[in-house]
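Honest question from a wet-lab person: if I give you the sequences of every part of a complex, can you actually get the arrangement of the whole thing, not just the pieces? Trying it with mine:
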Amino acid sequence: MNVKEIIAKRVAKELKDGDVVNLGIGLPTMVANYIPEGMDVTFQSENGFVGLGQAPEEGQEDKDLVNAGGQPVTVVPGAAFFDSSVSFGIIRGGHVDATVLGALQVDEKGNLANWMVPGKMVPGMGGAMDLVVGAKKVIISMTHTQKGKPKILKVCNLPLTAAGQVNMIITEMGVMQVTDKGIVLTELNPEYTVEDVKNATEAVFVVAEDLKEMEI
Amino acid sequence: MRNKVVTIEEAMHHIKDGMTIMIGGFMAAGTPEKFMDALVKKGVKDLTIIGNDGGWPNKGIGKLVCNKQVKKLIASHVGLNPEVGSQMNSGELETELVPQGTLAERIRAGGNGLGGILTPTGVGTIVEEGKEKITVDGKVYILEKPLKADIALVGASIGDKKGNLYYNKATKNFNPLMATAAELVIAGAEKIVEVGEIDSNDVMTPGLFVDYIVEV
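Yes, you can. This is the full assembly:
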């Protein structure tokens, strides 16, 4: 398993039967591949439907059915379409159980920066700001560092996507919970030591008394 | 019955330099693409465009940006059209980036006679800068003002001669919202049918919102 597969597989274990989930573009999209058979998880696509399915087979694309990245997708039986107001009513109104997103930076207070790098990359926030504010649980799934540079910081210095909304950070090194008292390392990938995680993290974190082996 | 069915040339006749135009669709799904081509051909300029995104370089709103007809773009995501970023950097294009759910609700407010909406999205981020914040029952919200336009260009799958519209699958997105929020609403329908052929239960935009309809 490569790093992204490890992360996606661990994120999938956070989802429960009956959950409505919105997955961000990129690594988070891979989470759908690891939902156990028989478990009913409904994926929302913020451009206007629930019941997002797999990518279509080549030649089976439908121009009227794309995901939030504009890529052709399919829907599962029981899917429902709606307009953007209803779509974000679902998101902001607390009807999404979990959202899984990538990050440029996360900090000790659960602040998230994932939408712009001033002067370099200004793609716009799309639906990310609404998702992070509205979803019941915000899971950040990302590689622990950016080529060795920590992304889990004391304080984010890039423009925020939302303040204090992140609940959980899942990386190839382990699992962290963001609590009122700061970040707690709750699971560790046995390939790494706590010292390795400390070296790759700028934020101060507490190691849980019952630190577990990362479930992969 | 007033005849709403017009040719694309007749419809585009209403669009003038400097106008504010809402364009439906999401990464070009649900965007009336032939209207984009007609606007490029017509060469109207200094437009303020309100839409979900900056499209692709050769598709959707992107065509107007690449042809330098847009003075200001109000959108949630522009990252998939590099031309938007380069015109932003060179100062040719002004952009207002709006969280996607906020964009939907501002348009809905514009079309529904509301003075704005209160949203938690963007609190604690640069989105709140310069905006009034209102606390309701202890929770902080940003007052986001309504958006209206001179023209809305919406893309429908089926329209009838009264202007009743049906949108297939994920093409609904911003279209039904925009159809309520402009002085003049022009629908591009893939198919125009006789009145009564769209079951009244399936009408997603009642014809009263639509001024002209073009088969595209």
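Two things worth pointing out. Chain A touches chain B at residues 45-49, 62-66, 68-70, 75, 81-85, 87-88, 91-92, 111, 121-130, 133-134, 159-164 (CB under 8 Å). The mean pLDDT of chain A is 96.
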